[in-house]
Amino acid sequence: MPAAISRARACVLGFLTATAGCDIDLIAPVPGKAAVVRAEMLTGNALAALMPDGRLSLAPPTLHGDQVPEAVARLQSIPFARHVTNDVLLRGLAESDRGRWIDPHFLQLCADRYFASAQVAFTEDDPLMRDVLLKRTFGPQWLVPLCNARFVPEVVVQVAVDANPIRIGDKGPDPLEEHLSLITAWVARGLPDYAVTALPVTAERAVTFAWDSLRVRIAEVPQLVVRGSAFQDDGPFAFHIPVGFAVYCHRWRLRLETEVKLRGMTTGGTAGTREVWVSTRDCNGIDASPILSRPLAVQPTTSWVQRGAVRAAVRFTSPVYFEHAELVR
Fold this sequence. Notes:
This protein is α+β, with helices and mostly antiparallel strands. The protein has helices spanning 3-13, 44-48, 70-86, 91-98, 132-138, 179-185, 203-214, and strands at residues 108-109, 114-117, 120-122, 141-147, 153-160, 186-190, 223-226, 229-232, 237-240, 250-264, 270-280, 290-295, 302-307, 310-316, 322-327.
């Protein structure tokens, strides 16, 4: 079953959450070739990160001792993905995303890998901040693409950076690991059969789209941020992220060389800014069309996250409410 049809069917049957997004009228596959960034689009640190093949070198931030380093995330992703795609009970999600069978024997590391920053940070004085499942779910994530023998990306492994001591052996993860514990630490998602890039909107596609839309050079290396949703329910804002959806649910933060004036498509307001955000319209994995966004003027500063009966306070480290935007010419 094609990936778009299988996901649309899942939406209709209620298998995907509203947060994940189920707007099945907006189907726009990833284009037939990856975006290539040109030097004229960049300046400053962004220009220094441009590689000869038109891709950007995305250096991750400095990690501390107990966080999962890049090398571990990449090397452990291969046995984990092979474990998932070899297991008849586990491979359904990845192959439903892909739209066909994934041969685990040919999976290998692709050239790219992505560090997705968290949108929230745990409040230091909250005793529940040490809850490992909360920290894995709402903390930063590695996104490690795996390619087939033709170097076409087929699977992306999402790896929790924080509170993740789980390692994958030749026979897969420790069988004593609880299911919920495992899926918050390691998740394998298949890519749609039509995809030619690991993310619906890569850093290169975000830059070229912003350049085409604004004609202003990007000055800093794009930052990938996990995308969640906040809602108010009888008091403080609650924050939610669907587990394993970071491959679809994220935004790119772009810092511009000069200020541009944007009009919000929801509020109608206009304002100057040197920071724009590029993402897909929603998190359903079907609509891969990039859109330009700007944060709303009013943002929550604190929130809470929950797993079962465990609730912890968090503070926002980046905007959570956005509106589509267009250039005021």
